[in-house]
Every structure is written in C-alpha cells, then in structure tokens.
Amino acid sequence: MPEEWKLLPQEEIMLLDDKTILITGGTGSFGKCFTKYVLTHYNPKKIIIYSRDEFKQFIMQNEFKQYADKLRFFIGDVRDKERLTRAFEGVDYVIHAAALKQVVAKAPVEIGDVLLANVAGTGVDVVATKAVE
C-alpha cells in the first residue's frame, strides 16, 4: 500500500468540531449520509445544506429535527455563482456533492445541462470559494 494511503493518526485527522460545513447537493444520497455521519461523530458549529430541491430540503429538515440548531437550509443551484458565493460566507469546509447522476436517462439535448451541473458547477464552487477568502 502506498505511504499516502495509510490512515493518519487520530490527532491529524481533519476535525469538524466547531466548524461550519457547506454541502452542495446536500439533499442527495451522499449529502444526507455525510450530514448524518458528521452530526453523529462530530460537533459542528453549523452544516449548510445547499440544494435546489425545496421539497427534499423540507423532508430532510423533518428527518434531522433533533439537529435543527446545527442545520441551515439554503435553496440554490451550483451554476449560480452569486448565490453560491453568498452561501460560502463564513464556511470552513465545502463538500461538493451536487451532480446530475442519471446521465444515461438524459436525452442527448440535455447533456449540456449535465455538463453545466457536473463540470461547470465544480468550477463555480472554486470561484465562489476564492471570492470569500
């Protein structure tokens, strides 16, 4: 096993206690699992769930009621630089999980939308991060 793959000693692992974390695509399968993991293993200051699906945010709010004081839900799209930059204010860590994953089911005309969300969305994340530094 390469040296860089070895587990870090406990004191060197990224600690999420008292940190503000923003999760793009936070209502998706990875976002929900990551949120649950962080809330049960760490004591974050706040987790911002950033997604464009208002209904999924409503469902997630109900699923995580006991953590209401730690969660903030933010409606937005990763392709919207201004909105994303606003969401990044005061954030310590960004987990970029936003993506259109049902690519095979998309018609050829919609492939541009997939690229915008999955590729350009990542670029917007980087630009927004630099804007709030």
Note the run of SSEs as H and E.
Answer: EHEHEHEH
Number of strands: 4
CA-CA gap between termini: 36 Å
- Helical percentage: 25-40%
Largest sheet: 4 strands, parallel
Mean pLDDT: 78
The percent range for strand residues is 15-25%
Total of DSSP H or I helical runs spanning 4+ residues: 4
Strand order of the largest sheet: 3-2-1-4
Q: State the secondary-structure class.
A: alpha/beta
The poorly predicted ranges are none
- Report the radius of gyration as a whole number of Å: 16 Å
Gross geometry: globular
Structural topology:
Blueprint: E1 20-24, H1 29-41, E2 46-51, H2 54-63, E3 71-75, H3 81-88, E4 93-96, H4 111-132
Parallel strand pairs: 1-2, 1-4, 2-3
Helix pairs in contact: 3-4
What does this structure look like?
Helices cover 40% and strands 15% of the residues. It has 133 residues and is an alpha/beta fold. A 4-stranded parallel sheet has the order 3-2-1-4, with helices on one face. The termini are far apart. The mean pLDDT is 78.
Identify the notable features of this structure and list them briefly.
four-stranded parallel beta sheet; alpha/beta; 4 helices; globular; single chain; 4 strands; 133 residues
Short description:
By secondary structure, the chain is an alpha/beta fold. It is built from 4 helices and 4 strands.
